[in-house]
Every structure is written in C-alpha cells, then in structure tokens.
Write a structure and sequence with these properties.
heterodimer, A: 465 residues, alpha+beta, Sulfite Oxidase, Chain A, domain 2, Immunoglobulin-like, 27% strand, globular, B: 349 residues, mainly alpha, 3 domains, two-stranded antiparallel ribbon, 6 strands, 5% strand
C-alpha cells in the first residue's frame, strides 16, 4: 500500500483540496463505495481504481501536459519546475510608492451588510475579522460607521475649539490648529474600538452568515495623540466639572458626552496618528477623540470642539440611538462601556474545514474595563472548556489574540470562546444576557458566540443559550 | 562624596518629575506659542449645543403651520409627508398615544410584537430633537435652517404626534411646558453598570450578568437554539471569496483548489471593489436583481448608457420597491465598464 500513499498528482489539480499537499489514499481518491470496499478488506482492486481516481481528479490539466505516473511520483511541480519569480528579474523599489496588499488579497476587504441601512452615508462597513492576524487592524480594513458621509478634510483648515458650557468653566477658551496640536506632548497607545451595535443583528436569533458581519464593527490600532487633559489645562478649564462634550466637524456634527474622570485619568486622547501614519479620512482625519473601552460613537471623528460642562447633553446619539431597550419598555441611557467579549475568527461561519486533522483555533478577546485575564475555548458547545493561549503583551482595552491547538475528528462540533477580564467579569451566554435584557436592545450584545462545524466541514453561525 | 547644594536639589527634582509618569505633567501656561484665544464670534458660531435643561437654546419661535411648509419642502422627500417613511431612515413619527402624553412612558415599547420604534416613541427630551435638527438636518444640507425654522419643524413633528394642537407656536418661552408632554419623557433608565464615570450620572450597579468560568461538565447538553435561516445564507453575497483562498479554511462554495486558479476577471474585481456584489449576485437576486437577470432583461437592447447613468444616480421601480442608492464615488468610466460587463453575462474568470 505504501507506494499508493506516496503518489502525488503532477499538477495542482482542480479537484485537489489543498494544493501543494500530498493526498493520501484511500480517503481522498476513492468513492465512498470504494472506501467501503477497502475497509471490508478488498484491497486488490486498488491499483487499477487509483489510476482512474487520479485521472478523474486531475482531469484535463494533468494529461494535457502529458504528465504521467513517473512525474506524478516525483513531486510538486512548484518545487520541481523553476518558477518565473525564481528565474527572472523582479520589480524595482518604489514601483508602488505607497505599498498595497498583494493582488491575491483582493477579497480581504470591508463589506456592507445588504439591507441593514438604506443609504451608504448613514451606514457601516465591517472589518474582515476572518482574514486578520494579531491584534492590529490594517488601517484600510478599519470598520467604518458614518452618520452623514465622510470627507477628507484639509488639515490646514481644520480647527479644534475648547470652551465651557458656562464661560467660567474654561478661563481661556482657545482655538488650536493641527500645527498647535502636533507640537504638544503626545502618547501612543493600542486600543480596540467597537461599535455599540456590534453583534446587534443577532440579539433575537442568528441573522448573518460570517464573523465579518457578526463581529466586524471592531478594530484595534495604535493611536497617537495628545491627552485631552493637557489641552483642557492649557485652556484653564475647571477640571472638577463632570462632563465634556465632544463634537465633530462633519454634517452630523456628532456629539457625545464623555465623563471627566476618563479625561483626568489621561485615557482620553485627541488623536491624529493611527498605526504610524495619519488617521485615515474614514476614521476622522485629521483629528478624532480616542475614548478607550467606550463604544465607537464616542470616539468623535473630525473632532472640532470640546466643551466642559456640568450636565450630560442628551444628544441624538445618546438619547434616541445608542440607548438599550429593556423588556420593561425602559431604555438604558448613557450605556457606554463595551463589556468583556470574545469571538473565534478561525474557523468561523461561512468557512469550510477541508479535512480532519490539526487546526489552530484563533480568535480575539477584549474588555472595555481593562485587560483580558483568560480565554477558554469549548469544542462541545460549552460543556467542557480548555484554557487558550494569549498572545502577549496583553494590554488594557486592547484586542487580545488567543489560540488553541485542535485536532478535528470529523464529527459535528460546536466551537465557543469565553473571555474573562481583570475585574473578574465573565462573558455571558445568550441565555444569561437575554434573561436580563431581552432581545430588543440592539446595543451591547457581548454574548458567547457559537460556530457549528458539520461533518462535511461546513462551519455555520448557530446560537446556544 | 559629592553633595547637592540646597539650591540645586529642587531643580533636579523638578526636572525629573515629567519623566516619572507616562504622561508628562506639564502645568498650564507651559505650551508657549501653542493655540490662541477663541474670539466670542467663533465661540458663538460653533457652540450650538442645546442641553436637556435647554441651556444653549436660542430665542425664537415657529408655528405648526410654518413647520408644515418647511417640512414639505425640506424634509418630506426623505421622511415622508407625515414623518412615517421607511425609505431613507426609520420613521420619525407614530406609535405614541394620548395616554403616553399623560404618563410619560410609551406603552408600545413594552410590546415585543410592536413593529419598529419611531423617534417620537424613544426621545425623552425635546432638546434632543431641537439640537439635532438644528445641527444635522436636512441630512444633505445640514446647518441651513434658521432658528425659527427649527422651532417650526419641531412644532410640526409634535403636532403630527398629537402632542400640540394645529394652531400651536413653539418658542423658547413655552418649550419647558411642552417638555412636560413628551410621550417618553420618563422612559430612560439610569440604573446600569455601563457608564465609565462615577459622576453620579447613573445609579451604578454591578454588571447585570454573572457567568462563571466553569471548566468541565458545565451543563448536561449543548442545545442549539437558532441556526442561520436559509434566506440569510445568500443574503450577504457569495461566501466563497469572503475567506482567503489558502490557509486553514476555505469559504463555503469555493471551488476546491481555487487558490491555484488565476485571479478574477478584472471587471468582476471592479464590481467587488465597488461594492456591487453586496446587493447583486452574479446568478442570484440579493437586494437588487442578479446580474444574470439584468443581462436577460436587456438582451438585444441598446441599454448600456441608460443603465450606466442609473448605476451612478441610483433609482427604483424597475425591479421592485427597494431603491439602488446612488454610487456617487463611482467613476463614469467604471460605471460604463461594469454595465458592459453585466450585459455580457458578468463572467467571473
């Protein structure tokens, strides 16, 4: 039997599931009936049928090239035959003055959820979490949420104003240009940003097919900017006032109330840098607020004004939207913290496992209250759990990558991940979350996500209470 | 041993201090030449927020009747004549009752079976409406309404909701009285664990779920309560290209070994990049018609130019009541390329 198991098809054939891999007989070459025959002990027919099976799989490609069993036995053509890239001269430096991803990555893109919104300017696009590694979101894949479209604002025309809701709250109301802001002391910090409505389509039941749509209003970047405290102190602000209002320069003039405590902690940044370059226009170029651990709507983009105040502002996006409907008909208002949450990105909904065997389960965990302390992974729908490995450094209010080695035995399983943060809070099940919040609150769904793996390898979105 | 002189000591301490913490603590007044004083006119121009206690509300007034005219000219195209339209955004008006005006709690919010939630059902304070319309509406021409016009459209919305009579005039002097009639004025709960400050804004509670990190035999069985409905399997376009074609997994429906295939047809790639495939399947209807249906419909006709214009400008009615939004960022030449490609059968390879 050994000779058959070593056989390698010559071309990467259309039917071959993982190019570059040596396919083993009999599982991959034989029909179910033939496999049955083998398991019954009738092996003598194999030599003949194997050739037929290889022929059927490789189809026209293998034979059009005149290859035969001799070539088939010798190995992978991408190793045996010299490739263009190994035998000719490549392109020069700065061929792409601003480098772009490989053309083979063209499908790794932000996507909209059709029918979710009626326009593209008040809408969202989701990050392809299924195709990302580590914790940093490539800036071009950062999720988008705009309320009134986006502009690429000329930084020389952008201004930041600081004033008080009463004149005495800010002694010296000031205006800053980008030149001014960028002269001030800065910090760089890695934080996640998640839309409060992330996973919102799934409150009542499974609704969307992939992790891009279930969890893709989530990104994580290194942000560079000036702690807002320094700017407020520069204006002689009364720091004992309890709130600041942040306002954007776009059509929506987005406004959100931010607690002064977070400003005093030096957590809130007036940021211009993202992942080593200027903020992208879709993310607020040239200036946005960074409010770690708090839902994305508070990270006001195209930031034009900060007002120090003694009362919350009840703006549209904290009084009509971004309020959480409870079963008793009351809306929870000023719900801002993104509670501890996690999701497995590989494997995940809409994907297919090609065969049994070893995989590395990989996913993301985060908490708006601090660091992720532990992530556990279940392959039986939450009956038993295993501690996952966390990539370091684990940072406060930043995405944390977890992974777990896994051998899939080909049976139907349900994958789940469950995160615990350093306050001891454990990510809830759907059952627990719905018991208190019902199914209509839209925002802040941080329930444990389940992915069902079927025997044929198809992974799909399911819910387990 | 070297001894610090008394006068040298404090200088050293001061110099070291900024490096002791991660954020430099530089006192105010230190950023010489950075920023400048805002002028009163500048502050007036940008400080437009109106709070729930109506601080910031400018003087002015507007009647229901004036509001109706402004509404019909500047708002109805998107929100419907009665604020009921679902076409561009969720309805603004509806779902509130006279009883709600009395109680200050919208009863329909308790009903799990009540379809949708209008703005009027949710909004607790009138300042929110005034402030928002003033800063952001009309959506395509924000900040163009005068203060009096804002008073007038707000009065009209209140009238549509049967909160004020037809002959009502809303003004800065009676707005606090009208606030007492807002149907959902008592509808906000401030008891939860999700405000990040301790400022007394919310009555902070412990988090409302209490899972435990149980590791084994945590429950007798894992019951699946919900699976992806059939219609939703195709509602987000083809899944195959949404997972990288090499690596641990493939996208469902991907041709096996697809990574060895040449890259997509460039027009297909353009369609994907332009976001068309979120709404159009190559061979199936998603939100808009399948590209195969479009090709069939216009077979033998000279429709390319007309369709390219429609793709750019958006439109509705040919395939149903769901509109195609305008593709404003799409280049004219790309619109033409795409339409030509669609009419030729939208080949993917």
């Amino acid at each position: 039997m050994a000779e058959h198991e070593e056989l390698t098809p010559v071309e990467t054939p259309e039917g071959l599931k993982q190019p570059g891999r040596i396919q083993k007989a009999p599982e991959n070459f034989l029909t179910p009936t033939e496999i049955e025959s083998v398991t019954q002990g009738r092996r003598n027919f194999l030599r003949g049928s194997l050739f037929a099976a290889v022929a059927a799989m490789t189809g026209r490609h293998a034979f059009a090239q005149g290859s035969d069993a001799v070539n088939a036995a010798s190995g992978d053509p991408y190793i045996l035959q010299p490739q263009t890239w190994a035998t000719t001269l490549g392109k020069g430096v700065a061929t792409a003055p601003y480098g772009l991803p490989s053309k083979y990555e063209a499908d790794v893109i932000r996507r909209q959820s059709p029918g979710l919104t009626q326009t593209t300017q008040s809408s969202v696009s989701f990050s392809p979490l299924q195709s990302m590694f580590g914790i940093i979101t490539a800036s071009g894949l950062h999720f988008e949420r705009h309320h009134q479209g986006w502009y690429d604002i000329d930084p020389t025309q952008h201004r930041l104003m600081v004033n008080g809701s009463s004149p005495e709250f800010v002694k010296k109301p000031k205006v800053y240009t980008m030149d001014d802001i960028m002269r001030m002391p800065f910090v760089s910090r890695i934080h996640f940003i998640e839309c409060g409505a992330n996973t919102g389509m799934e409150w009542g039941n499974v609704a969307v097919p992939t992790v891009q749509y279930t969890h893709g209003m989530l990104s994580c970047s290194e942000f560079t900017g000036v702690p807002l405290r320094l700017i407020l102190e520069d204006c002689g602000a009364n720091m004992s006032k309890k709130f600041v209002l942040a306002e954007g320069a776009d059509g929506s003039a987005m406004t959100r109330t931010i607690p002064m405590e977070m400003v005093l902690n030096d957590e809130v940044l007036v940021a211009y840098g993202m992942n080593g370059e200027m903020m992208r226009p879709e993310n607020g170029y040239p200036l946005r607020l960074v409010v770690p651990g708090v839902q994305g709507v508070s990270w006001v983009k195209w930031l034009r004004r900060i007002e120090v105040g003694d009362q919350p502002y009840g703006t549209k996006d904290e009084a009509v939207h971004y309020i959480d409907l409870m079963p008793d008909g009351q809306h929870r208002q000023y719900t801002s913290v993104q509670e501890c949450k996690s999701v497995i990105c590989t494997p995940s909904g809409g994907q297919k496992l090609l065969e049994k065997g070893y995989y590395t389960i990989s996913g993301l965990a985060w908490s708006g209250r601090g660091k992720v302390r532990q992530v556990d992974v279940s392959t039986d729908g939450g009956i038993n759990w295993k501690r996952a490995k966390l990539e370091t450094p684990v940072q406060s209010k930043a995405l944390t990558r977890f992974s777990l080695p896994w051998n899939w035995d080909g049976k139907a399983v349900i994958l789940q991940s469950r995160a615990v943060d350093d306050t001891g809070y454990v990510q809830p099940t759907y059952g627990q979350l719905r018991a208190v919040r019902g199914t209509r609150s839209i925002y802040h769904n941080n329930a444990i996500q389940s992915w069902g793996v079927a025997e044929n390898g198809d992974v799909s979105n399911v819910q387990v209470l | 041993m070297f001894k610090f002189s008394k006068s040298f000591m404090p200088a050293i301490t001061l110099a070291l201090l900024p490096f002791a913490t991660t954020t430099p603590s530089i006192a105010a007044d230190k950023y010489t030449g950075v920023g400048r004083a805002a002028t009163p006119a500048e502050i007036q121009a940008w400080d437009i927020d109106v709070r729930p206690d109506f601080k910031g509300l400018p003087k002015g007034s507007g009647s229901v009747e004036q509001g109706q005219v402004i509404w019909e000219n500047k708002c109805a195209s998107c929100h419907g004549t009665f604020g009921e339209s679902n076409t561009v955004f969720t309805p603004l008006v509806g779902g509130t009752t006279k009883d709600d005006v009395k109680t200050g709690n919208v009863a329909n919010l308790k009903r799990a079976d009540y379809p949708g939630r209008t703005t009027m059902m949710k909004v607790a304070s009138l300042s929110t409406l005034w402030d928002y319309i003033h800063r952001a509406m009309p959506w395509n021409a924000p900040k163009t309404l005068s203060d009096d016009e804002v008073y007038a459209v707000v009065a009209y919305l209140l009238n549509l909701s049967e909160i004020v009579p037809d002959d009502f005039t809303l003004s800065d002097s009676n707005i606090r009285e009208v606030q007492k009639l807002m149907p959902n004025r008592n509808g906000m709960s401030l008891k939860h664990a999700m405000w990040p400050g301790k400022s007394g804004l919310v009555t902070a509670t412990p988090p409302d779920t209490k899972n435990t990190a149980c590791m084994s035999n945590c429950k007798p069985a894992a019951k699946v309560s919900s699976t992806l409905p059939d219609y939703a399997k195709t509602s987000h376009g083809e899944l195959a290209p949404q997972t990288r074609p090499f690596g641990q997994t493939r996208g469902q429906g991907a041709a096996a070994g697809s990574s060895a295939k040449p890259a997509h047809n460039p027009d297909y790639a353009l369609a994907e990049k332009s976001g068309c495939l979120a709404c159009h399947g190559i061979n199936q209807k998603i939100v808009g018609p399948g590209f195969n249906e479009v090709a069939d419909k216009y077979k033998g006709q000279d429709a390319a130019a007309k369709l390219a214009t429609k793709v750019k400008n958006g439109g509705v009615g040919v395939w149903g009541s769901i509109p195609m939004p305008a593709q404003t960022d799409l280049k004219d030449s790309d619109a033409q390329t795409l339409v030509k490609w669609i009419l030729s059968g939208a080949p993917t390879q």
